[in-house]
Amino acid sequence: xxxxxxxxxxxxxxxxxxxxxxxxxxxxxxxxxxxxxxxxxxxxxxxxxxxxxxxxxxxxxxxxxxxxxxxxxxxxxxxxxxxxxxxxxxxxxxxxxxxxxxxxxxxxxxxxxxxxxxxxxxxxxxxxxxxxxxxxxxxxxxxxxxxxxxxxxxxxxxxxxxxxxxxxxxxxxxxxxxxxxxxxxxxxxxxxxxxxxxxxxxxxxxxxxxxxxxxxxxxxxxxxxxxxxxxxxxxxxxxxxxxxxxxxxxxxxxxxxxxxxxxxxxxxxxxxxxxxxxxxxxxxxxxxxxxxxxxxxxxxxxxxxxxxxxxxxxxxxxxxxxxxxxxxxxxxxxxxxxxxxxxxxxxxxxxxxxxxxxxxxxxxxxxxxxxxxxxxxxxxxxxxxxxxxxxxxxxxxxxxxxxxxxxxxxxxxxxxxxxxxxxxxxxxxxxxxxxxxxxxxxxxxxxxxxxxxxxxxxxxxxxxxxxxxxxxxxxxxxxxxxxxxxxxxxxxxxxxxxxxxxxxxxxxxxxxxxxxxxxxxxxxxxxxxxxxxxxxxxxxxxxxxxxxxxxxxxxxxxxxxxxxxxxxxxxxxxxxxxxxxxxxxxxxxxxxxxxxxxxxxxxxxxxxxxxxxxxxxxxxxxxxxxxxxxxxxxxxxxxxxxxxxxxx
Amino acid sequence: xxxxxxxxxxxxxxxxxxxxxxxxxxxxxxxxxxxxxxxxxxxxxxxxxxxxxxxxxxxxxxxxxxxxxxxxxxxxxxxxxxxxxxxxxxxxxxxxxxxxxxxxxxxxxxxxxxxxxxxxxxxxxxxxxxxxxxxxxxxxxxxxxxxxxxxxxxxxxxxxxxxxxxxxxxxxxxxxxxxxxxxxxxxxxxxxxxxxxxxxx
Lengths: 648, 201
Known about the structure:
The structure holds two protein chains of two kinds.
Chain A (H helix, E strand, L loop, with lengths): L1 H14 L5 H14 L7 H14 L3 H14 L4 H13 L3 H14 L4 H14 L2 H14 L4 H13 L3 H14 L4 H13 L3 H14 L4 H13 L3 H14 L4 H13 L3 H14 L4 H13 L3 H14 L5 H12 L3 H14 L4 H16 L8 H5 L12 H22 L9 H22 L9 H23 L1 H4 L11 H29 L9 H28 L3 H15 L11 H7 L3 H13 L10 H21 L1 H5 L3
Helix pairs in contact in A: 1-2, 1-3, 3-4, 3-5, 4-5, 5-6, 6-7, 7-8, 8-9, 9-10, 10-11, 11-12, 11-13, 12-13, 13-14, 13-15, 14-15, 15-16, 16-17, 17-18, 18-19, 19-20, 20-21, 23-27, 24-25, 24-27, 25-27, 25-28, 25-29, 25-31, 27-28, 28-31, 28-32, 31-32
Chain B lengths: L14 E4 L6 H9 L31 H12 L3 H12 L14 H14 L4 E5 L7 H14 L4 E5 L3 H7 L2 E6 L2 E5 L2 H14 L2
Parallel strand pairs in B: 1-3, 1-4, 2-3
Antiparallel strand pairs in B: 4-5
Helix pairs in contact in B: 2-3, 3-4
């Protein structure tokens, strides 16, 4: 041996002055010939020379020599082994692998050799054969931890996860306390979609190394992915106790808090993470999503912008920024972002659609641009208007009712040219017709006065006043429903407007007819003008009370108006219009005397004809009934206010 | 719709009311207007509050545009001739102004309603969704007229469009689950509304 070493030294020394590899080998040959070295020692000489050269850092020459040695004696174990060592230390993995495989032919069943071959093959990129050798090594020496882990790593690289898990289990059996193995196994189990095993392994790895950051992060990430948010958060918080400025841990904490619904906590965690690593695009993306969830749109838009600036290759940040601007109504900004998106990806249809949407919305609200915010800033504050005084409210009410009456006169006979004239003509025609019929039928003097026309007139006028008022008020709300939308118009106003209009109309009708009779020479003026007026007013009041009641009842019982029509027809026969109650038997008269309209008719007649003074007439009864119905009607109208609005 | 809500719409500010569909925004506007009485409680108005802008439901189909406007002017005690002249000029209905309203198209009705609301000098205008009426030119005139009104008057606006809210309003309110939350800043109101939508999809 020493002799060989010396020869090598001498050979290197002799060849030292020469430059290139070929020349170096030539020099060596020359040296061997000069010193008469026997030929069988050539391989070992080249082998040793190669080793010595590698030690001196002359890798090229070392490899030359190793190749010569390998070619000269490929069957000699120590030489091949030497060559393999030189090859693998010179990063000639393919040559090394060939040498190791050669060695394995010489020494089958050599576990370490398989391991070496596997390493070289893996480095040379021949994964399948590398795995074969790694597996053989581990199978030959199943108690070697390193062999098992090596085989597992190769299998994982090749995507053969189940094989990898097998080798890792072998490794874990050899050394149960190594957390890295468990962690790796956990990762693979998760990839294999056996998440429960994966989590169990991760937790076991963490329990073996409680302070280990990697194990903690791994375990918490798995817990997050399997929906066990609270446990994950606990583990991360534990890690943060020892590593308070760990960006990855803070990012995980933020995810955990978000998944637990604690958005504010998540935001705080990601802010801390950003303080540690301020230039991480993904952190900004996450932060922006959190802000968006919190509805802090302006900040979210800014964070998306930062993420996009830090990672221009990811278009999602910009796309999200557009959405946020759109949602917060900042269409100009949204449009700018959309423009960038389209410029970056002109073919992307989704971006084009988004921009189109922004454009449409912007167009819709173009008019709003005319109102400039700054102009309003200088607007003086208006003092509060005092609540209207009683007089003012009364004036308003009068104004409203006045407006309603005018409207009523225009709309009731809207499609007729004569308009409201019909409201006068209709009862006049009716009275003239019926009194003609009765005059012929009764064929003689009326019970009171000279003319039947006058007699019938004195009956029908108070009756009409009552019936017209009460019936027309029944429908007041239904036909004016839309007007109740006006704040100043209430149910009382529409009812009252109709009531007053009927009072005016029927008074006018009465006056016109009277004038007509006068003109025809039937001349009869009321004897007591004030009494006639008062009796008409009282019967109108009674009509109003019934009108209020009708309107209220009709809101509940929809067919009440039909019943009311029948009742008014009955009243026509019970109110002494074409007869006087004095003509009736006493017992019938006693019953009829309950009818307030009968009293109204008789009151009117007794004021019209001085000679007529029936003993059954009770004016206070009529006044009382009128007042009670008005009070009841108004009360019901007030109380059912809500209900009366509903027919809308 | 509103449950135990006590709040003040301060004068000198324009309010935007936000809320998901069916939260009762329109009902709130009608309560503020007085178009509908509250089931319980009171609405106090220390200002002349308009009926919802562009609401033409009070128009009677058999009456002419002129008669309908006169009616509204009478109700509010406005000078009848001045009001009619203003509406006649603004609504650009031409000879239709003398025709019954039920001969109008929907657009003409809307123009009449909008002009009538602007003609009367309200302190607070209520707007339930800014509706687009007429052609571009008419809309510009509306916006211009409105801008003049806003020097003296406030608005309370209900809309889905955040852009409109930002342009018209400086304060916001969010209506949800019967609660009305006031915000002094329109930005925070929009954020609150957005958060609500996220949490209650």
